[in-house]
């Protein structure tokens, strides 16, 4: 057993290092610029301080702005909870479905990815909402995810959004837009 001790200790150290990297939560302005829809410098030149400040007016203002959405997504990634936003966006896209043939398959994909127990990107909703959504899947309609989407929206608005407004990503972004003016 003694000859194995250095090997075990070395393996544990490597595991601790890997886990340490996984648990490192970066919350920086650069994390936001990396996922901007346009080239970061060009995008930020178009973003005014007034626009970025308006994101604090309401959660829906933030979600309706292309760069606000990108910044919020970057923030949620630092909290390992971007599945909430991805589900909300998938529901918004789903509501635009016009083909009856595509409706059922899109609904099934969303359900399997976000709602089903043990889904790869399972959102945090209560049992009743999950079961109602499961029943809605028997005859999918454009409104079959409404209650679940509403719960996730409310969760993000009450929980993640206030933290986003205090985050380094948002405060750094505001500072960058203000620096450009001076």
- Report the order of strands and helices: HHHHHHHHHHH
Structural class: mainly alpha
CATH superfamily: Regulator of G-protein Signalling 4, domain 2
Radius of gyration: 21 Å
**Number of separate strands:** 0
What count of helical segments does DSSP give?
11
Largest sheet: none
Provide the β-strand percentage band.
under 5%
Count of distinct structural domains: 1
CATH topology: Regulator of G-protein Signalling 4, domain 2
Structure report:
- This protein starts with a helix and ends with a helix.
- The protein has one domain: Regulator of G-protein Signalling 4, domain 2 (Orthogonal Bundle).
- The chain has 182 residues and is mainly α.
- Helix 7 (82-94) packs antiparallel against helix 8 (100-115) and helix 7 packs across helix 10 (146-166).
- The chain has 11 helices and no strands.
- Residues 1-26 have low confidence and may be disordered.
């Amino acid at each position: 057993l003694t000859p194995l001790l250095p090997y075990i200790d070395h393996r544990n150290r490597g595991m601790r290092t890997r886990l340490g990297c996984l648990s490192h939560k970066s919350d920086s302005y650069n994390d936001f610029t990396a996922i901007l829809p346009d080239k970061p410098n060009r995008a930020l030149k178009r973003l005014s301080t007034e626009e970025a400040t308006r994101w604090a007016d309401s959660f829906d203002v933030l979600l309706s702005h292309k760069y606000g959405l990108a910044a919020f997504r970057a923030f949620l990634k630092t909290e390992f909870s971007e599945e909430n936003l991805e589900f909300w966006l998938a529901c918004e896209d789903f509501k635009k479905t016009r083909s009856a043939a595509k409706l059922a398959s899109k609904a099934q994909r969303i359900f399997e990815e976000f709602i089903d127990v043990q889904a790869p990107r399972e959102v945090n909703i209560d049992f009743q909402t999950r079961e109602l959504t499961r029943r809605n899947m028997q005859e999918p309609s454009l409104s079959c995810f409404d209650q679940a989407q509403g719960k996730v929206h409310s969760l993000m608005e009450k929980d993640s959004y206030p933290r986003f407004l205090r985050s380094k990503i948002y405060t750094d972004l505001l500072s960058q837009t203000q620096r450009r003016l001076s």
